[in-house]
Design brief:
heterodimer, A: mainly beta, 6-stranded mixed sheet, 5-stranded antiparallel sheet, 11 strands, 0% helix, 58% strand, B: mainly beta, 7-stranded mixed sheet, 4-stranded antiparallel sheet
Chain lengths: 111, 116
Protein backbone atom coordinates (compact mmCIF):
# COMPACT_ATOMS: atom_id res chain seq x y z
CA UNK A 1 0.00 0.00 0.00
CA UNK A 2 1.35 3.40 -1.00
CA UNK A 3 2.12 5.78 1.85
CA UNK A 4 3.00 9.44 1.41
CA UNK A 5 4.76 11.47 4.09
CA UNK A 6 5.31 15.21 4.16
CA UNK A 7 7.91 16.86 6.32
CA UNK A 8 7.73 19.23 8.08
CA UNK A 9 4.09 19.26 9.18
CA UNK A 10 4.32 23.01 9.74
CA UNK A 11 6.80 25.69 8.76
CA UNK A 12 7.00 29.38 9.61
CA UNK A 13 9.39 31.65 7.71
CA UNK A 14 9.97 35.39 7.26
CA UNK A 15 8.95 37.00 4.00
CA UNK A 16 11.55 36.78 1.24
CA UNK A 17 13.07 33.50 2.37
CA UNK A 18 13.55 30.60 -0.01
CA UNK A 19 12.14 27.35 1.31
CA UNK A 20 11.83 23.65 0.55
CA UNK A 21 8.93 21.33 1.32
CA UNK A 22 9.54 17.60 1.30
CA UNK A 23 7.42 14.67 0.19
CA UNK A 24 8.36 10.99 0.33
CA UNK A 25 6.50 7.92 -0.90
CA UNK A 26 7.01 4.23 -0.23
CA UNK A 27 6.22 2.66 -3.63
CA UNK A 28 8.33 4.04 -6.47
CA UNK A 29 6.02 2.59 -9.14
CA UNK A 30 4.15 5.85 -9.69
CA UNK A 31 2.78 7.42 -12.84
CA UNK A 32 3.01 11.02 -11.68
CA UNK A 33 3.21 13.28 -8.65
CA UNK A 34 1.12 16.36 -8.11
CA UNK A 35 1.60 19.29 -5.74
CA UNK A 36 -1.45 21.19 -4.50
CA UNK A 37 -2.14 24.25 -2.42
CA UNK A 38 -5.13 24.51 -0.07
CA UNK A 39 -6.26 27.72 1.59
CA UNK A 40 -8.35 27.47 4.78
CA UNK A 41 -11.91 26.41 4.04
CA UNK A 42 -11.20 26.11 0.33
CA UNK A 43 -10.65 23.41 -2.25
CA UNK A 44 -7.34 22.23 -3.64
CA UNK A 45 -5.52 24.17 -6.33
CA UNK A 46 -3.14 22.21 -8.55
CA UNK A 47 0.33 23.78 -8.61
CA UNK A 48 2.55 21.37 -10.51
CA UNK A 49 2.31 17.94 -12.09
CA UNK A 50 5.48 15.91 -12.64
CA UNK A 51 5.32 12.86 -14.87
CA UNK A 52 7.23 9.77 -13.75
CA UNK A 53 9.69 10.29 -16.61
CA UNK A 54 10.47 13.88 -15.59
CA UNK A 55 12.96 15.18 -13.05
CA UNK A 56 11.43 18.61 -12.39
CA UNK A 57 8.76 21.13 -13.28
CA UNK A 58 8.72 24.89 -12.84
CA UNK A 59 5.95 27.43 -12.58
CA UNK A 60 6.89 30.98 -11.66
CA UNK A 61 8.55 30.96 -8.24
CA UNK A 62 7.79 27.27 -7.75
CA UNK A 63 10.04 24.39 -8.70
CA UNK A 64 9.21 20.76 -8.01
CA UNK A 65 11.68 17.92 -8.37
CA UNK A 66 11.12 14.20 -8.48
CA UNK A 67 13.52 11.36 -7.68
CA UNK A 68 11.34 8.34 -8.31
CA UNK A 69 13.95 5.74 -7.45
CA UNK A 70 14.45 7.14 -3.96
CA UNK A 71 10.76 7.95 -3.47
CA UNK A 72 11.21 11.68 -2.94
CA UNK A 73 9.94 14.99 -4.23
CA UNK A 74 10.65 18.52 -3.14
CA UNK A 75 8.77 21.75 -3.72
CA UNK A 76 11.02 24.79 -3.76
CA UNK A 77 9.42 28.20 -3.24
CA UNK A 78 11.62 31.18 -4.06
CA UNK A 79 11.31 34.58 -2.42
CA UNK A 80 8.33 33.62 -0.28
CA UNK A 81 5.44 36.08 0.21
CA UNK A 82 2.66 36.28 2.82
CA UNK A 83 0.23 35.22 0.06
CA UNK A 84 2.05 31.90 -0.12
CA UNK A 85 0.69 31.00 3.31
CA UNK A 86 -1.41 27.87 2.90
CA UNK A 87 -1.27 24.10 3.31
CA UNK A 88 0.74 22.34 0.62
CA UNK A 89 -0.16 18.79 -0.29
CA UNK A 90 1.62 16.27 -2.44
CA UNK A 91 -0.08 13.28 -4.02
CA UNK A 92 1.15 10.35 -6.08
CA UNK A 93 -0.79 8.50 -8.75
CA UNK A 94 -0.51 4.76 -9.15
CA UNK A 95 -1.56 2.61 -12.07
CA UNK A 96 -5.29 2.81 -11.31
CA UNK A 97 -5.78 6.59 -11.59
CA UNK A 98 -6.08 6.89 -7.81
CA UNK A 99 -4.19 9.58 -5.92
CA UNK A 100 -2.63 8.93 -2.52
CA UNK A 101 -2.14 12.10 -0.52
CA UNK A 102 0.24 13.18 2.16
CA UNK A 103 -1.16 15.04 5.17
CA UNK A 104 0.34 18.32 4.08
CA UNK A 105 2.71 21.03 5.26
CA UNK A 106 1.15 24.15 6.79
CA UNK A 107 3.24 27.11 5.61
CA UNK A 108 3.10 30.51 7.26
CA UNK A 109 5.05 33.38 5.71
CA UNK A 110 5.37 36.29 8.11
CA UNK A 111 5.52 39.88 6.81
CA UNK B 1 -10.30 27.32 -13.00
CA UNK B 2 -11.67 23.94 -14.01
CA UNK B 3 -15.45 23.99 -14.34
CA UNK B 4 -16.42 21.93 -11.31
CA UNK B 5 -19.31 22.73 -9.02
CA UNK B 6 -20.54 20.88 -5.96
CA UNK B 7 -23.97 21.08 -4.37
CA UNK B 8 -24.94 21.69 -1.72
CA UNK B 9 -21.91 23.54 -0.34
CA UNK B 10 -23.06 23.06 3.24
CA UNK B 11 -25.49 20.60 4.75
CA UNK B 12 -26.58 19.65 8.23
CA UNK B 13 -28.55 16.45 8.60
CA UNK B 14 -29.55 13.93 11.22
CA UNK B 15 -28.28 10.42 11.81
CA UNK B 16 -30.11 7.84 9.75
CA UNK B 17 -31.27 10.15 6.96
CA UNK B 18 -30.19 9.67 3.33
CA UNK B 19 -27.98 12.35 1.79
CA UNK B 20 -26.94 12.91 -1.81
CA UNK B 21 -24.10 15.17 -2.87
CA UNK B 22 -23.74 16.26 -6.45
CA UNK B 23 -20.66 17.02 -8.50
CA UNK B 24 -21.09 18.70 -11.88
CA UNK B 25 -18.35 19.36 -14.45
CA UNK B 26 -18.31 21.28 -17.69
CA UNK B 27 -14.92 19.97 -18.88
CA UNK B 28 -16.14 16.68 -20.40
CA UNK B 29 -13.43 14.82 -18.46
CA UNK B 30 -13.71 11.07 -18.32
CA UNK B 31 -12.58 10.47 -14.74
CA UNK B 32 -14.37 11.73 -11.63
CA UNK B 33 -13.57 11.14 -7.97
CA UNK B 34 -15.07 11.63 -4.53
CA UNK B 35 -12.74 12.28 -1.57
CA UNK B 36 -13.31 13.08 2.05
CA UNK B 37 -10.97 15.25 4.11
CA UNK B 38 -10.67 14.82 7.86
CA UNK B 39 -8.21 16.22 10.40
CA UNK B 40 -5.44 13.71 11.03
CA UNK B 41 -6.35 11.60 8.02
CA UNK B 42 -5.89 13.96 5.12
CA UNK B 43 -7.69 13.29 1.86
CA UNK B 44 -8.97 9.79 1.25
CA UNK B 45 -10.63 8.40 -1.86
CA UNK B 46 -14.21 7.17 -1.44
CA UNK B 47 -15.21 6.15 -4.98
CA UNK B 48 -14.19 7.02 -8.49
CA UNK B 49 -15.62 6.73 -11.98
CA UNK B 50 -13.79 5.98 -15.22
CA UNK B 51 -16.77 6.54 -17.47
CA UNK B 52 -20.55 6.71 -17.57
CA UNK B 53 -21.93 3.88 -15.43
CA UNK B 54 -18.36 2.72 -14.65
CA UNK B 55 -17.38 3.14 -11.02
CA UNK B 56 -15.03 1.55 -8.50
CA UNK B 57 -14.37 1.69 -4.79
CA UNK B 58 -11.69 3.70 -3.06
CA UNK B 59 -10.14 3.12 0.34
CA UNK B 60 -13.08 4.34 2.46
CA UNK B 61 -16.16 3.26 0.48
CA UNK B 62 -18.20 1.60 3.26
CA UNK B 63 -21.49 3.45 3.79
CA UNK B 64 -21.28 5.28 0.47
CA UNK B 65 -22.63 4.60 -3.00
CA UNK B 66 -22.17 6.51 -6.25
CA UNK B 67 -23.82 6.85 -9.61
CA UNK B 68 -22.84 8.37 -12.90
CA UNK B 69 -25.56 8.42 -15.56
CA UNK B 70 -24.06 11.32 -17.51
CA UNK B 71 -20.49 12.39 -18.21
CA UNK B 72 -20.98 15.67 -16.38
CA UNK B 73 -22.57 14.45 -13.14
CA UNK B 74 -21.23 12.21 -10.36
CA UNK B 75 -23.48 11.65 -7.35
CA UNK B 76 -22.37 10.49 -3.90
CA UNK B 77 -25.07 9.00 -1.67
CA UNK B 78 -24.97 8.26 2.03
CA UNK B 79 -27.82 5.79 2.39
CA UNK B 80 -28.13 6.29 6.14
CA UNK B 81 -25.87 9.02 7.42
CA UNK B 82 -23.81 8.48 10.58
CA UNK B 83 -21.86 10.95 12.71
CA UNK B 84 -18.60 9.40 11.47
CA UNK B 85 -19.48 10.70 8.00
CA UNK B 86 -19.25 14.28 9.18
CA UNK B 87 -16.53 15.61 6.91
CA UNK B 88 -15.64 17.85 4.02
CA UNK B 89 -16.28 16.12 0.70
CA UNK B 90 -14.37 17.02 -2.44
CA UNK B 91 -15.06 16.06 -6.01
CA UNK B 92 -12.23 15.92 -8.54
CA UNK B 93 -11.92 15.34 -12.28
CA UNK B 94 -9.15 14.29 -14.63
CA UNK B 95 -8.61 13.30 -18.23
CA UNK B 96 -5.98 11.06 -19.70
CA UNK B 97 -4.14 12.84 -22.48
CA UNK B 98 -2.97 9.56 -23.96
CA UNK B 99 0.57 10.00 -22.66
CA UNK B 100 1.31 7.68 -19.81
CA UNK B 101 0.64 9.38 -16.50
CA UNK B 102 -0.62 12.58 -18.12
CA UNK B 103 -3.74 13.18 -16.08
CA UNK B 104 -3.84 16.15 -13.73
CA UNK B 105 -6.60 16.17 -11.13
CA UNK B 106 -8.67 19.29 -10.53
CA UNK B 107 -10.78 19.74 -7.46
CA UNK B 108 -14.15 21.29 -6.73
CA UNK B 109 -14.82 23.74 -3.88
CA UNK B 110 -16.04 21.08 -1.44
CA UNK B 111 -19.19 20.29 0.54
CA UNK B 112 -19.14 20.57 4.31
CA UNK B 113 -21.46 17.89 5.75
CA UNK B 114 -22.44 17.71 9.39
CA UNK B 115 -24.35 14.69 10.67
CA UNK B 116 -25.95 15.27 14.08
Amino acid sequence: KQEVTQIPAALSVPEGENLVLNCSFTDSAIYNLQWFRQDPGKGLTSLLLIQSSQREQTSGRLNASLDKSSGRSTLYIAASQPGDSATYLCAVRGSNYKLTFGKGTLLTVNP
Amino acid sequence: DAGITQSPRHKVTETGTPVTLRCHQTENHRYMYWYRQDPGHGLRLIHYSYGVKDTDKGEVSDGYSVSRSKTEDFLLTLESATSSQTSVYFCAISESRGDRGGDEQFFGPGTRLTVL
